[in-house]
Amino acid sequence: MGRHLPPTKRGVRAPVVVAGVVVVLFAAGTLTVVSLTKGAPPCANAVPVKVAAAPEIAPMVNEIGHAVEEADPCYAFDVDDRDPGAIEESLEVVGNSEKPDVWISDSTLRLRRANAEGAADVPSSGFSIADSPVVFAVTEPAAAGLGWPGRTPGWSDILGDSRITLGIPDPSRDPVGISALMGVRQALSTTGAKDGDTSLAYASVLRRFSANTLPAVDDLYSRLPSAGGSKEPVTAFPSSENSLLRNNVRESAANGRGSLVAVYPPQPIPSLDYPFAVLAGTGRDQAAGAEKLLRALLDPAGQAALAGAGFRTPDGRSLLTRSQDDHVSVVTQNLAQMPSDSALDSLITEWSKVNQSSRARVLIDASAAMNTVVPRSGGRTRMDLTTDAVARGLNLFKPTSELSTWIFATDLDGRRDYREVIPMTPVSDLLTDRAADTIRGLHATPDGRLGLFDSVLEAYRDARDGWEVGRLNLLIVLTGGRNDDPRDLNLDKFLTEMGKLTDPQRPVPVIAVGVGPDADLTQLNAITGVTGGRTVAATDATDVANVLYNALAALAGAGS
């Protein structure tokens, strides 16, 4: 979050500008600006202070800046309402002569990113002058379908309703999007589902988001049903509370029907904190003017003006009652710190991977060991649990991904230890062609041994030959035993042959899932190690679905 102005000694407020006060009110659906400034003697040489501010807050910064000028004419504030993303990119350019003295972005995240990308003049944090929580903006009809206004819907209600068309501002570009991903994870984790089911649900939600991912929040407002565009409208998307309020004011003024309902996250997530940052290299006089502006913005009169424009105080409080408005809440929103850079990188990686299609081969052990009945499973075998996990896991993959399914055991297809049961097929077709039923209908052999090495080697060779650029090429192996085929390669020979096939420029990582306590993890680690993949174990075979989904999430960013 942005920093807050430190208190002065003995609890006495620092000198503030009170000669100029700007009051902004929501009145009859419009913004009314009332200037109560008093004149002051002119100054011969006013110090120019360049301020770049996010467009939604820039008008108020400009008005409060004018009030400061009238109280102290020795400063002249030039407020530029530029998109924070554009400012972020421009500040990363070395030697940029157009940099401002002060940058009021919408989020501390932008300061951190600009600083990390080489903008040494940009501090990694600033003083928060206002706050706007990240909410789900939901159309009135969609909210009514969830019980509003009689009940307050939650994020899990929105995410679980297939009738709602979701959209999201690109999390890799917009702070609202990255905060929304955190809120989605929290909402799904509060449903009481197992970890694997949560991963599956998260991947499914990201899939729904990806179809309507737009660069910024404002772009999503243009896709509302009330906007009348030619593309399929979105009916719920993450937004700042301030953006939602401004939309509703516009709709009210125009007697429109496009007002939105704000649905708040179940737990605190990073909000837009509007950090006031003075850039390094700013002149002493400009820095002094910036301090006057900052104090005016944080003064009660400045905070009241910002509140009237739909902002909360830096600590998340709403200064307006809005008692007649059931579209928003005035309950204080607790603040959440922006996670570490590494945690944010993980979220973005997950998001980017969800938009990457895969080409995967799934190998399912069909040896006799898979007929073992699993305790506490209601009489289900290892094979039953494994095939069910694979069938359900189809939803983890993007519809444009491609998938084939093999089973393997000794002499399964003549002298071969493997057989392809579903050829390489787009997942969109698998989901409509009852492929899940086909997978669940697979059976283990009554007496087959485990021909692991021959089968993996042949599948890996097939994957290499069918490798496609721009896709995540994968080999997924699920097995409940150890290689015990006397005709099979030994481990050393197998690893030598695999080493010949691996190519860092055409990677095919292997995910190996050990099903039950008899899986030989040493053999599986050897297989995955040579390919840059990962071995996971479901020692209790009832957990095979959870283990598989978590492994896919870790390797492919919560879906492929």
TrEMBL record:
Pfam families assigned to the protein according to its UniProt record, in alphabetical order: SBP_bac_11 (PF13531)
TM ranges: 12-36
InterPro entries the UniProt entry points to: VWF_A, vWFA_dom_sf
Source domain of life: Bacteria
Domain VWFA intervals: 359-552
Coiled-coil ranges (or none): none
Keywords, alphabetical: Membrane, Transmembrane, Transmembrane helix
Name of this chain's protein: Substrate-binding and VWA domain-containing protein
